[in-house]
Amino acid sequence: MYSDRFSFLVQKLRLLPSVGSKSAQRMALHLLMRQRVGALELAQAITDAVEHIHECSVCHSLTELDVCEICLDTERDQQVLCVVESPADVFAIEHSGSFKGRYHVLHGHLSPLDGIGPEEVGIPHLLQRLSDGQIQEIILATNATVEGQATAHYLVEACRQLPVRISRIAQGVPQGGELEYVDSHTLHQALTHRLMLNQD
Amino acid sequence: MYSDRFSFLVQKLRLLPSVGSKSAQRMALHLLMRQRVGALELAQAITDAVEHIHECSVCHSLTELDVCEICLDTERDQQVLCVVESPADVFAIEHSGSFKGRYHVLHGHLSPLDGIGPEEVGIPHLLQRLSDGQIQEIILATNATVEGQATAHYLVEACRQLPVRISRIAQGVPQGGELEYVDSHTLHQALTHRLMLNQD
Fold this sequence. Notes:
The structure is a homodimer.
Chain A: H1 4-13, H2 21-34, H3 36-52, E1 54-55, E2 62-63, H4 69-72, E3 80-84, H5 87-96, E4 102-105, H6 118-121, H7 123-130, E5 137-140, H8 146-158, E6 165-168, H9 184-192
Parallel strand pairs in A: 3-4, 3-5, 5-6
Antiparallel strand pairs in A: 1-2
Helix pairs in contact in A: 1-2
C-alpha cells in the first residue's frame, strides 16, 4: 500500500526519540501534504547540523567550533568544573543562569549491565583534565537517578587521591512541590539535608 | 548558548506535528549524539520523499507514479467511490481490508471560518470525476467529527442531481467499546441505526 520511499521515510522518522510507527506515519503525511518546503529545509538543517556540530575537544559538549564558547570564555571561573551526563544538562544549567564555571560532559552514565563502564562514559578523559591541578572543585551534577547516583559515587572514589573538593548538587523538594505528592526518598533527602535558618 | 545550526535544526524539527520546543531539542540532541548516520539517512529520506511522492492525478492520494496503484488496479470495483479527508484515511481503510472500490481524497474538510470552502477542499474535481457516469455509489467516509459531518452533508447536496447512490459510513459503538464510557451522541446514533437481527 505504501510506496517504497514513503515506507523508508516512516522507518527513518522512527529514529527520533519517542516516535512510534503511528506518529511516524502522521509526520510523514504532514510533511508531504502540508510542509513540502519546510520538509526540505528540515532535511537541510539535519545535514548541516551533522556536518558542522561535533563534540568540544575540551568539555565534550556540542559546538560548531573546535573548542566551545563556554570553554573559551575567559570570564568564567576556571577553578570550578560541573560534571553532567549530556549536553542537554549543560543547556538546562546555563538556562538557570546559576553557574559560572565550566563543564565536563560525560557520555551518559555508568551502566555495567549494558557494557557501559568508566571508559565508555569518558571518565579517564575527565581525570586527565583534572590532573593539571587548575581545578579546585568539581560539582557532580549527574542525574538524581539510580544510574546518575552510581556514576557520581564512582567519581568520588576515582577522584579521592586528587587535591580537589568534590560536591554533589542538592536533592530535595523541587520548587512548587507539594509534600503530599513528593516520593519518600526525596522527602528523606530533604529532611536529612535540611538547612538551618537561625545558625551560621 | 545554542549554536546557530543547532537552533535552526530545533526550529525546523518543530514543523513536525505535536513537536514542541522541548521535544525538538531532545530530538536534535538525540540525532547529534546517538544517530549521526541515521540522521543523514533521515535527511535523505525526507528529500527523496518530497521529490518523488506527489498526489495521484486521479484520486489525489499520495503516490510515486502519475496515477496511483489503487486507481490503476483493474481488479477493483470501478463503480464504488469512497470519499475521504486524507491519504491517512486511505491507508486506514486499506489496512482494514474491507473496501475494494476506489478512493477520492479531499484536501481535508470544509472549514468556512478558516477560508476553506468547496474549492479548497477539491469538491469541484470530485464532481467532475462523477460526471462521466461510471460511478454508481459514493461512500462518504469523511471523519465523524463536526467538520467531517458538515463536509459529508455538503456533498450530499452537491451530488443530489447526479444519478449516484450516496451512502455514509455507519456511526455507532466501536469494537471493544463499553457503553458506560461511550458518549451520548454515539449512543444515540447506535440506537437510532440499530440493526434488526430477526428480520430481513
